[in-house]
Amino acid sequence: IMxxxxxxxxxxxxxxxxxxxxxxxxxxxxxxxLYDFGGSYPDNIIYPQEGTIEYTVYVTARPDDIQYGxxxxxxxxxxxxxxxxxxxxxxxxxxxxxxNGGETMRIEVVQTTTGRIVxxxxxxxxxxxxxxxxxxxxxxxxxxxxxxxxxxxGDIINQEGLTMAAGYxxxxxxxxxxxxxxxxxxxxxxxxxxxxxxxxxxxxxxxxVDEEVTFEEYxxxxxxxxxxxxxxxxxxxxxxxxxxxxxxxxxxTVAFDIPEPLWGLANLYIKWELFSAAGMSNDGWxxxxxxxxxxxxxxxxxxxxxITGTFTSETVETTGVTVEATNNDDVNIVVDGSxxxxxxxxxxxxxxxxxxxxxxxxxxTREYANVNADIDAQDYVIGxxxxxxxDTVTPIDExxxxxxxxAGFEGADIVTEGFTAPPNPNFVPTSRGIxxxxxxxxxxxxxxxxxxxxxxxxxxxxxxxxxxxxKGPLASHDVTVDLGAKDGDLEWARxxxxxxxxxxxxxxxxxVLTAQNFVKLTWVSESETGMLGYNVYRNETETQEGAxxxxxxxxxxxxxxxxxxxxxxxxxxxxxxxxxxxxxxxDMTHSTFFGPQxxxxxxxxxxxLPTQNVMRSAYPNPLNKGDYFNLYIDVKxxxxxxxxxxxxxFELLEDKHYFLCEGSHLITVPTEDLDYGLYRxxxxxxxxxxxxxxxxxxx
Length: 699
What we know:
This protein is mainly beta.
């Protein structure tokens, strides 16, 4: 059998939308490996041969053998070596409506020097992944390799002992001069995770003279050898052969297989080293491009670990459990009687949840992160299920559903006996029950009424010995219960007959302002049972917190079935202030608040009268003509006062005469009608006269 040597052509079948729509999905990329049609290739070295390889591509419709193509873009010539070829199937104008599996892609390969033609056909099918060998000595269809290193994709080629030409690399071509024996190009890469590693590259030499590039026998680097190293210091020639550069512009292809011991290495070094230079090598240029390393991804068997456990219970059957896991790609679950095994891939993270209808599990779930070892003893205890599971709308009687939520809530049971009577004996339940809550922390219970509560209906619930209630119309209501660190019960009732929380039925509770600017509070009870009495609270805000009780002693209740009227007057109020009042009805076990009722205290505030007559100095004094001066005078209760002014000629000023009753007064006296000079103010307090003082008016 002839040795494999030359070309691996990766044909990426890029379907246009029109073709993709026909096929349902794009074809998987495939590679075509071509064998040489003769020639000598010792040690897998690819020597250039005369001529080129030409290829054409057709699409053939079977079974009618109708051939389409070749398209100009799918016909080309190429040098011997390893190449990447893209064929866009959208270039073909395919006439058939759908692909029935009979269509093929036909490739013809011609070597121009021999005229030998080989061909192969590849079936075009959705999800195509053919592995058939069509001609052992010509064409093989294989999976495309992976590019580990590609200088055309930005991977760097290093150099040693060379001078890089200005402006290079240009278009991924590296050009250097100043060549001497031992100078090299080199690359560093990792082959971890790859096998069947190969390398390809292109080199040539040239000379720059008279601003033109020439290719002559006596200039530039001529003979290269290739080496590999695992540490960058110790080098091994591979393959053992020389690479002779041609005397023309032809790119010389150097391609070879990487030995198997070099697969899977974290560091691998390859170099192209100058072995011999022709003539004036220092004046010649050497170029390298298209350096690429390919390999097949190594198959690494996935690693799996087992999470195992047992279902246990002292009271219920432990079989029939279903186990589920999140992130369940590549996860296998096996339940065998009372045991289970969950097989997960390495580094799996997720949650495992057992379930069995009508039962609960402790713990409810188990969570795992980055599993990297077997985990055993992951047991669950099965218990009787709850009537009301969490986060699920559940009917609790014919007219009421509930949904209970909470981080620490486990479930609840419905209890249909052991009820307690609400405080109001007139309340008649139409439905009632007890919810026995299991869990910790705060839970929210949404009661959903169907039909909804209508006007006159009440819904009540009891927490910690205290009843609470809301009045219809109402379609739903949320109740929050803090279980703390233990379980708890919530009793509920729906019905009519008045507020179920009240041992007293009030028909009136109001607050009004009296003629004396006090607040009178009145309430009327239609009936009382087991009442201790009432308290009234006052605050200056709508918030009950911080309100003050205004009655020193509790107002006793009469506990009769007839109408009773109560009132209390609050005389510790201030005009201009709004007050809020609450009535507390107290029975043997708890109390209920009504209100608030509010009153704004308005009216004329009665001033506090002076206890003695007081005169204060005039101000300002002296003052300019036309300004004002002030007199401050207090007249005690039961006294009237007269204030007069005289001028320097002792003449009484009639328009400056003031009569004052009891209280505090400010008199503002104008001076625009007075001449410059000195004036005296007199005051008479109920027959006792005083000289108030002198006032000087100046310019």
